[in-house]
């Protein structure tokens, strides 16, 4: 019997065509938790985007489900613990996505330091003479060149950021759970304790996943180490205590904050909206590009098919699941 796979978002057509060679594919676009819980019992595989929540109440009703393939590097929208308990494999993607996110991180940094979004708004209002105001604020406009850049998290995305920042004439510091000799040799990155990275850097970029250990890793105390500096977040919204960030900006202590992610999404109102000069804000789309979307689609399909072939993919998130349900027990292909 062919596996049945449910896709919860508008996936690129070519990866879907590949998946249909091996499985029967249905779409349920951006369902509520209740809608998904009602349907999930009929499927062997699930492909989800970061906008698709898969909480415990869905997983409890997933009687046939063997694999949840995340079309993203992050997986905090899936209850991985509940999936593991039920013997469901959870996978993620990397590759081209890492390059797209790293490129976006650099773009956010440049936009923040050079005040590009702010001045773009002025010229669209017909306020060309506002350039006199901008010129008078030249001390608040800075180049990335010559800065010390600290990167928290040196996985694939962190490394891709480091390569780009090195090419822009910066000095690289980083903190990660383990030292990365390859990137140290490649770009001269220096591994330091977390708080030392904050002290030494002019710009700090967050490229960490959301875990209990990284929750509010930038809190009110650590923001004191970032006085007069810039903070950029392309990791997850929960890495940052947003109330503390707002306070630091309001008091003139944090020079600027650029983020693609928020503690609670989607965002329609936020205190940060008031600080147009000091912030650059985007709606969680750092990985969005034609190339990255197609590459992620093929990776998500490969990951799902690998599990259904009774194999363990390199991108498996919950490694302990193999003890709950060995790979040969989920084999369908």
Automatic annotation (TrEMBL):
One of its GO terms (cellular component) is cytosol. The lineage of its organism: Archaea, Methanobacteriati, Methanobacteriota, Thermococci, Thermococcales. GO terms for molecular function: glyoxylate reductase (NADPH) activity; hydroxypyruvate reductase [NAD(P)H] activity; NAD binding. PROSITE patterns: D_2_HYDROXYACID_DH_1. Belongs to the D-isomer specific 2-hydroxyacid dehydrogenase family. Residues 107-286 form the D-isomer specific 2-hydroxyacid dehydrogenase NAD-binding domain. Keywords: NAD, NADP, Oxidoreductase. It comes from the Archaea. This is Hydroxyacid dehydrogenase. Residues 6-318 form the D-isomer specific 2-hydroxyacid dehydrogenase catalytic domain. It comes from Thermococcus profundus. InterPro entries: D-isomer_2-hydroxyacid_DH, D-isomer_2_OHA_DH_cat_dom, D-isomer_DH_CS1, D-isomer_DH_NAD-bd, NAD(P)-bd_dom_sf.
């Amino acid at each position: 019997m062919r596996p049945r796979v449910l896709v919860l978002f508008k996936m690129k057509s070519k990866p879907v065509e590949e998946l249909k060679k091996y499985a029967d594919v249905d779409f349920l676009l951006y369902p509520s938790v209740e809608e998904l819980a009602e349907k999930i019992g009929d499927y062997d595989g699930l492909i989800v985007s970061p906008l698709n929540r898969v909480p415990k109440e869905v997983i409890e009703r997933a009687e046939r489900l063997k694999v949840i393939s995340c079309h993203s590097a992050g997986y905090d929208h899936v209850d991985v613990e509940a999936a593991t308990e039920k013997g469901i494999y959870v996978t993620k993607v990397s590759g081209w996505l890492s390059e797209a996110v790293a490129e976006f991180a650099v773009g956010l940094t440049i936009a923040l330091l050079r005040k590009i979004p702010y001045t773009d708004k002025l010229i669209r209002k017909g306020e060309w003479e506002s350039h006199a105001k901008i010129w008078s604020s030249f001390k608040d406009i800075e180049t990335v060149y010559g800065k010390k850049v600290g990167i928290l998290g040196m996985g694939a995305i962190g490394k891709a950021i480091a390569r780009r920042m090195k090419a822009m004439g910066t000095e690289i510091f980083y903190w990660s759970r383990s030292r990365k000799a390859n990137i140290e040799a490649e770009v001269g990155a220096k591994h330091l304790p977390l708080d030392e990275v904050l002290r030494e850097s002019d710009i700090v970029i967050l490229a960490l996943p959301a875990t209990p250990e990284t929750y509010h890793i930038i809190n009110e105390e650590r923001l004191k180490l970032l006085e007069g500096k810039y903070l950029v977040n392309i990791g997850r919204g929960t890495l940052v205590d947003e109330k503390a960030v707002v306070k630091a900006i309001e008091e003139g202590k944090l020079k600027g904050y650029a983020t693609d992610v928020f503690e609670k999404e989607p965002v329609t109102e936020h205190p940060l909206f008031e600080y147009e000069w000091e912030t650059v804000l985007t709606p969680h789309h750092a990985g969005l590009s034609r190339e990255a979307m197609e590459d992620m689609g093929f990776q998500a399909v490969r990951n799902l098919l690998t599990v259904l072939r009774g194999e363990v993919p390199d991108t498996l998130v919950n490694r302990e699941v193999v003890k709950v349900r060995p790979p040969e027990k989920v084999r369908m292909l």
